[in-house]
Amino acid sequence: MSLFNVYPLFDITPVKAEDVYVFDENNTKYLDLYGGHAVISIGHSHPKYVKHISEQVSKLGFYSNSIQNPLQVDLATKLGKLSGCKEYQLFLCNSGAEANENGLKLASFHNGKKKVIAFKNGFHGRTSAAVAATDNAKIVAPINAQQEVEILELGDLVALEKSLAKNDVCAVIIEFIQGVGGLDESTAEFYEAINTLCKKYNTCFIADEVQSGFGRTGDFFAFQKYNVTPDIISIAKGMGNGFPIGGILIHPDIKASFGLLGTTFGGNHLACVASSTVLEVIEEEKLMQNATKISAYFIEKAKEISEIKNIKGRGLMLGLEFDFPIAELRKKLIFNQKIFTGSAKNPNLLRILPPLTIKKEHVDALFDAIKSELS
């Protein structure tokens, strides 16, 4: 049997990793400044992470959600404390797409409406309603396109209120910093107006924090820079440091009932231990503070390179925008300089999503490599 060929692959085969470094089968060392799409939050193979997961799998790796699981309660308690969202409720699933699916479904249950508003260049997943709310027609199949979704220009408040006034929108979903779309952000006025308008028109406000959450921006969540209170917050990626886990934080105004949502694997024992350990390490090693500190240093270093026309993002969710397509530069960084970086829908944007444990010396290595390849 062969693999279904949907991924264009670089000819690199990682076999082990440690902190910000990945090693291939020839023991070639690569600096990982992409973290597997912002998944690696506390560094590869963190000793505490390895220890806790190993201990848990030796006792109990999985049982269904039909029994008591104190690890879920422990995770919810830690997450509420560190995120500052203690009043929210937690539903656990397995991925970012699932998180957004459950968020959209819950919104529709809550207010009885079915239309969704999303924004240009947004990305929310590859399944059902999540992909319909994603601004990429190439990955929306006809079965997805039957969902009622309106995609608006980021920042267009007039169009937003006009659509909400029809009173058929169950949810407005937005990334406060766009990931795949290219690190675009709108204004405080826009985000705070969404918050107000959603309350006015009985619409759920969903903050997609799948990529930006768990300290990546320097705040625990990207939305916390603004005066907003989302009804639902979707999380995944950095939540498990590589172990598949996702979830939604649900405002207490939204009430639960048996059978409303459900999952087989979501919130399993290993996933809970993985995410609880991530939270412990983020707090103990002050990784949100590190994200802020290294981000400031990164921005100053980027200003030294004239070919960089714009620096986008916040914390360690960053983009370097050039006035030329970066595909070739990215290949040179991988194969010549042994540095992993990422791309985006914007062809001129080099995306930087390193582990939150990154140090200044790693930033120096990146910019030395870029200078070398551009000279």
Automatic annotation (TrEMBL):
Keyword Transferase: yes
InterPro entries linked to this entry: Aminotrans_3, Aminotrans_3_PPA_site, Class-III_PLP-dep_AT, PyrdxlP-dep_Trfase, PyrdxlP-dep_Trfase_major, PyrdxlP-dep_Trfase_small
Cofactor: pyridoxal 5'-phosphate
SUPFAM superfamilies: PLP-dependent transferases
Keyword annotations: Aminotransferase, Pyridoxal phosphate, Transferase
Alphabetized GO MF terms: identical protein binding; pyridoxal phosphate binding; transaminase activity
Pfam families xrefs: Aminotran_3 (PF00202)
Keyword Transferase included in the entry's annotation: yes
Similarity remark: Belongs to the class-III pyridoxal-phosphate-dependent aminotransferase family.
Protein name in the entry: Aspartate aminotransferase family protein
Organism: Tenacibaculum todarodis
